[in-house]
Batch of 4 targets.
Target 1
Amino acid sequence: MSPIDRQTLDQIAAEIGLTADEIARRKEFLEFTEADIEKLCDIHDHMTDVHLEDIFSELFYTHLTAFPDLRAFIPDEAAVGRLMRIQARYFMRLTAGDYGESYVLDRLAVGLAHQRIGLEPRWYTGAYRKYLSFLLGSVYAHIGHDEGRFLATYDALLKVVFLDMELALDTYFHGDRQKLLHMANHDALTGLPNRMLLSDRIERALLQAHRDGNQVALLFIDLDRFKNINDALGHPVGDAVITEAARRLVAALREEDTVARLGGDEFVAVLSGMEREETIAIVANKLLKSLEAPIAVATHEFYISASIGIAVYPGDGATQDVLMKNADLALYRAKQEGRNAFRFYQRGMNELLMTRLNLETRVRRAMEKGELTLHYQPQVDLGSGQIVAVEGLLRWSSEGMFIPPLAFIPLIEETGLILPIGEWVLETACRQVAAWHAQGILGLKVAVNLSMRQLWNKDFFDVVWRILAQTGCRPEWLELEITESILMDNPTEAVSVLRKLADLGVTIAIDDFGTGYSSLAYLKRFPVQSLKVDRTFVQNVSCDADDAAIVRAVIALAHSLDLKVVGEGVEDAAQLAFLSSLGCNLGQGYYFSTPLPAAEMTPMLLNAASLAPGFDIRNCRVRWIGGRIAKCMVDKGACPFARVPGDLCEHPLVDRITAM
Ligand code: C2E
Ligand code: MG
Ligand code: MG
């Protein structure tokens, strides 16, 4: 243990308020006078003469070592001699006659040392008792014949012991208070400032910025999908990840910046003295980068990322509350727009976005009020032109306002609401596909999007099993769409559930393929039947050579692994032609149809079903306007692709039909 320097002692004395005046007041209250000091000096001389301090030390140590709790404080035998000498010196100072500043500091040093090693007051108040009892006998033996002198000396001893004990206790509790203060202001897991200290730091930074005329940036940092780690691998692993993330965030900033932990996976960084927005953006980027390297915990390796929302004083708010709220809104926007990114607060976000809290309550209510529905978007076999599957897509309309799934699905994934909602989606889709089969639309599959949370739920297999049984949906009519990250983040667990489902006959598709990261080796191991090329690649195939090359490569890769490929987001004929030319198996997108409610999907399916062998071209009445575009002349609902007679027909199979 490092020795306690004079400066620290002076500082502690100042913090406790041990001024010369205060010491004088204490002595006065203890009635500790010059006469007492004289008596103590007398007894001191006697003790030195007959080496009473050594006898006392012996006795004291024998007593002390009889208690295992105390023995634990003695590092080894060799230390005993040294400790005994310190002890002897300590007690001898009680009678040495000097009770001024150096005595006080000496007592403080000992109190602090006790505090540091965790020796509690009850042990050293016990030591004073031992000292007094010992002296009772020794002093009596020495001057007991003179009753008056004995009583006065002993009274002086009592006074000095109490003076001494007060000082020791003062330091002890002072240290404890410091510890408590630290605890009250810091987060126990990471040691970072907590919400309370953060608030203080922000307040100071704002004041300073006001004086200096510069800016303060508040960065709300939230780890992406952290709940999944906690839920799947338990809190100790989650804690280790948080601790490492905290360490990296701190390391990425200047010493004068503050990073605080608000709780869970939420951090706030305060950057003061900022002059330009670009600088803030650079720091935000640095923070995101610092989290990029994998984090190893036990046998796992995690890739984490964070989203950051930024509000800047004074532009985005004059007070701490407003700034925090706005940084939170910006964070929410960053999450919504794809995570692993930062967003500055923009005026108007308030109106555009509901606060997260608000949104969560509204989603809960939406479920109860039946505001959630499932729409279906067809997947067309590019070879035969048949609709072979539909993808169920969640829709939420609240008081006439449509809320896009990407605005609330990430949130309900985080809050766990995805479990009941996901179950509802699965059940609705299964029930619907069973109903379509009952209407004669044979071979149709329904695809349902899964979130990580659902797959990691221990009961997921049972949930699917029960829903299939209850709705009469056959396993082979159901396809589950999962994203690459679901597989890659937790391959072993994911594989076993998926394999069990695949054994039942349920098929698995990888959604948004190309946007995440996949190990090709994993792909081969997974019971996956198809890849859905993300629509961002499909959209650019005609204008971006890189995207075209990616799509070409994905299709080739998938085919070599014996997987089917679905082109997502097909919006025009050129994209369709490109995909078809590469042998892409299925297409999905607005070119064929937007997602529709079941009631609107049914006639399309019934008619598309008639495109199967036996379809009679004479029933199809289209008036050609030129090229591929034609006006649909069939009755409402009779044409699989145009919904209203007279609509422009963007029938993908127009060429084939004409050819027939
Ligand atoms: P996704 O699974 O990739 O679904 C396809 C998305 O692309 C849908 O967006 C669809 O409306 C849109 N889309 C289809 N064709 C086109 C096109 O030609 N052009 C363009 N620009 N977009 C097209 P949506 O419905 O907004 O859903 C977005 C995402 O939300 C889905 O992406 C899926 O990841 C998620 N999602 C939707 N419903 C559910 C659900 O029930 N559960 C879960 N876990 N996620 C869902
Ligand atoms: Mg999907
Ligand atoms: Mg997709």
Target 2
Amino acid sequence: MSTQSKVLVLLGAPGAGKGTQAPILAERLGLLHLATGDMFRAAVRDATPLGVLAKGYMDRGELVPDELTIRMLLDRLRRPDAEGGVILDGFPRTVGQARALDAALAAEGVRVERAPYIEVPQGELVRRLSGRWICRANSHPFHDQLNPPRVAGVCDEDGSDLYQRQDDRADVVQARLDAQLPPFREVVDHYRAAGVLIAVDGTKSIDLVTKELLAALLASGDGDPSAHGTPDRA
Ligand code: AP5
């Protein structure tokens, strides 16, 4: 990171639409998209020591311990391609992670500039997660009813095959929400207290949520985190 780096934290409960929106925002805003869920899934697929440790937690719908997660993310942020700024997706998930990120950024003279928050009620999260299909090559998300691919079983973006994540099974979905929503709400409070939270209604269509996020981020300007483009409805 350098003092010029922009850091956005995209917040949302599991299934709120972070993975759907983050690549679009990253492209439009010229930022690198970093998703800790994707990083962990790559580590599991490659059977690295980190992947072996993380797999059990992920399969049960639990958070991977802070120590492992923080180290993985901060190491990734130190790589040169993060210099131009990042949008974080799925991190931080606990106040401990949020504080570790704040401290690491402060050491570089940087801070989280905005925390756009995709708000979705719990019942809708269950529906979105249990119908979700992910592409094998790049994790592009689809939904069998809400956002179906043009050709069944094939990713619109890169043509790779679609699969259902292990942690999107109905029993694990509920366990994920039970375990992860309480710490997630504390993270929302952390960014609200810091004056950088921008809440957006995530129940609208994918295109409308994108428009609201971009409008809020662009309207809120680059310098003053208290200048919210959209009122905090959280
Ligand atoms: P991760 O991959 O981050 O999972 P998650 O937060 O549970 O988020 P998801 O990817 O499941 O949901 P999303 O918000 O990206 O929604 P999506 O865009 O896909 O993490 C997986 C696991 O890794 C965790 O459980 C944990 O074990 C571990 N982990 C990761 N980060 C960690 C951390 N920081 N600390 C500790 N552990 C960590 O959308 C969902 C569905 O809805 C899709 O089907 C999509 O097509 C559809 N959809 C999206 N938007 C809309 C819309 N507006 N209208 C209708 N449908 C929509």
Target 3
Amino acid sequence: MTKRVFNFSPGPAMLPLPVLEAAQKDLLALPGIGQSILEVSHRSKDFLSIIETAQANLRKLYGIPDNYRILFLQGGAQMQFAMIPMNFLRNSGKAADYIVTGSWSKKAAPEAKTQGDVNIAFDGSDTNFNRVPKADEMKLNPDAAYAYYCSTETIQGVQFPSEPDVGDVPLVCDASSDVLCRPVDMKKYAIYYACAQKNAGPAGVTMVIIRDDMVAKCPDDLPSMLRYPPLVEADSALNTPPVFAIYIVKLVTDWLLDEIGGLDKMLERNRMKSQMIYDAIDGSDGFYDCHAEKDSRSLMNIAFRLPSDELQDKFLAGATERDLVALKGHRSVGGCRASIYNAMPVEGCQLLAEYMTEFKKANG
Ligand code: PMP
């Protein structure tokens, strides 16, 4: 096998090796089908069985109740930035609450504004998006059309330890950066969505878990591809769905169930992995400066700075020599960022933590 590096990219990101191996092994012909997954019809019973298994796996992993649909859509997470307000804000006669904790929720709010009134219930920009709000800091409207938040801000590395309490208002979550990283009580959500390319598969598919009463609320006067009801009725195949990406999501969720043993186990492993890197930061006497405040730190994305640009460049070059790649932070916050999604092996986190400690000793 060609050598693989530890890829700390924020997405598309590493996939579990057994998933890549299974996809490689069966690429020419799926067992019992005799066709490549790249060749099968999206209307065939073979593909229907793949999409049904992916849905059943997600239901099992999250304990998703029967009154929720699971969709596999195109257009990325950002298409949901648009579809959600088009369907639930535009004709509602209400405003929507947006809890803004980083770049992605900041980007979602103006998209909603194109469709109706938006109340910014919290704006973390005053502290450079380094934390999630406390309950009493959010100006939530009890009559909002919905309340929207992003469970992990990929760029800032800020994660909600648990969902905000928004009372009876439908809760909408962009879980792109932490989907499947820990158990979630899906009953608290009206819509829970995530693009796949970080923690669930390749680019090209977005998973949308949506409660039936929300589907029933959608207006008629939108094009079919932008309304949830036709997508639900067609079970995600209103047009040709991203067959290969859905197949990989099936393999990733098989891996989570069969090899990891579910989301409790995944969470344990993610805590252990992230702790290694946070320990390297906290034990560095301030050499590494973590962007997120302690109680808002993410299990998935760790953004940190070094004392100078020169040291940062040297750190990144040394990391690449050790096969620890894609650690440069997003241009909007600078510094470094380690994205350590489910598929990042424990060894990758260990090597990075060791390297960080070594680098500080030599340069601190
Ligand atoms: N939300 C979050 C939290 C993200 O990290 C990203 C992508 N990095 C997006 C939304 C946008 O995803 P997409 O490119 O699939 O539209």
Target 4
Amino acid sequence: MSVADFITLGIESSCDETGIGLYSQKDGLIAHQLFSQVKIHQEYGGVVPELASRDHIQRVLPLIKATLKDGKIKLSDVSAIAYTAGPGLAGALLVGSAVAQSLAWSLKIPALGVHHMEGHLLAPLLEARKPKFPFLALLVSGGHTLLVDVTAIGQYKILGESLDDAVGEAFDKTAKIMGLEYPGGPALAMLAQRGIEGIFEFPKPLTDRPGLDFSFSGLKTFARNTFTQYPMQKADIAKAFEVAATQTLMIKCRRALKQTGYKALVVAGGVSANEALRNTLDTMGIKSSTEVFYPRQDFCTDNGAMIALAGHLRLIKGQTSKSNKIIIKPRWSLEDLQAV
Ligand code: KG4
Ligand code: ZN
């Protein structure tokens, strides 16, 4: 098989979305499909891990079939399979891993476990306007808030991270406190659009001291206390929370850009869908002559396309898992990845 004909099937199942992607060396992203479990977890106000695993089992094979059909690709045309091996929910990861390894074994093709956050980090490479290495990456999701010095694929140095809640988690918890619907992040962002800036002033945690780490749990507590005192002003509270969170992220990005000397910033992960964050970072980018890159809206949150791409870039260089063992890594640092 020549690299030119290489086609990678990607499987994402680390949390509450089943995602499938097909990436070809010749044509780029050929097809992708997503099944979101939002409705399943909505009545519980958060992801129920056991329900997530069970639903991945139901969805993954039909979704692979549908994606192949959509891309007009036969299963026998697939050169290799990439799947999310971690970090994430163990049961959910096991579903993708077991399906990927079994399929690869039966088709006699390689499989490779991909780091979910590397998937997010590389997602902007699926766009026409791509960042060039090196760059600074701000990864903002439900489980992580990371500032990463990216010199090449697989060469990651974590410059800063959250010491407590991830920023997406803080959005979700603050939304829950105010009785908003799950998933809280987008609901809070929508409510904030109706809020007036400046009515409430929230702190910008850890911005008044040196360093690149984050802390978002205090912001959530501040929101809870404000909401208890002013229960009728939800939109203004949502606005104050969003402004404080996005300003905090911007201040740390500006600092990290200064420190690294980089003129390119990649922003990815679920919270990179947030319009206020994009506006704040775009303004900072203009002021500091920094180019800012995002994935398209659909690829900010979890998806199979980013896993197909991240796996593909390694598989075409010959990286594969050594055996068909079903191995998952629910906890896994980006710094432990192999360079390509
Ligand atoms: O990357 P992702 O889909 O899953 C993880 O890897 O965690 O990120 C999900 C997170 C959730 O916390 C969700 O509330 C947040 O991203 N999110 C948003 C928005 N869209 C998704 N937060 C703020 N504003 C949004 N528009
Ligand atoms: Zn994610």
